[in-house]
Every structure is written in C-alpha cells, then in structure tokens.
Amino acid sequence: LDEATIRSLAKHVAFFVPLGLAKTLRSWGCDRVTELDWWNSVSFEDKVLLKPTPCQHWSRRGFFDKNKSLWCSWVVEDIQNEPECARFIFLGDSGYCPVFTEVGQRCGPFSLAAIPIGAYEPRWFMKPQHINPE
To answer: pTM for the complete prediction?
Structure first.
C-alpha cells in the first residue's frame, strides 16, 4: 500500500480490504472502507460481488506486525447477468499453493484469471510467496 496514493484516492473511491487493513486506511483519510475475511463477500453497487479468498503470502506494514493482517486473492463476479455471470480471479501476490484448488471449486469456473508472475528468483527464497512461469 502506498500511503500517498491511498490519500489521493481517499475521498473518491470505495476500498475493499482484507481483515486488518481498515484501521490503516481510515487513518489515511478513507471513509468508505469495507473490511472482509476470506470467503465473505460484498456487493458493490449491485453490479459486482467481491470476495477475498485465501492465497499464500505474508503481510507486513511495519517492523513488528508480520502477518497481523490478512493476505488474499480476490474473486470478482458480475452479478448483473446471473446465472451466466462472468467471474474474474486476481490471485494477487501469492506463491502457488493447494488452496487454489479449493478456491476454484468454491468460486469457479472463472472467465478470466490474473496470475502474478514476477520477483520469483532466487527460487529457494521466493517460492513460498511468488509464482514463477513454470
């Protein structure tokens, strides 16, 4: 999270965040913040359903708060065109993990997936939190 960017958007957008981040965003001037646990969902303007889902990464905002907030991937579902709604999954910054199977079973099938591939070397160090092209 970039504080300057969040502050510049604070009065213009709604924020949907995983558990543990709402307090930080509110302290940066954000009024419309919805904090969600994995598998919970919220409708945005009766157009899309947003659902945070598990993934594999650590979280940290400072020196002494490692894993004090939830890390997640996001499922975004077009609820205007049910039952043929489009579903998009953004895996966020994550290592490959077995929970992706459960996410697919519970929330899929997906019309589109954004899978982050980057910062994956050296593999021995980055494997748990970043997916590689292989």
So the answer is: 0.81
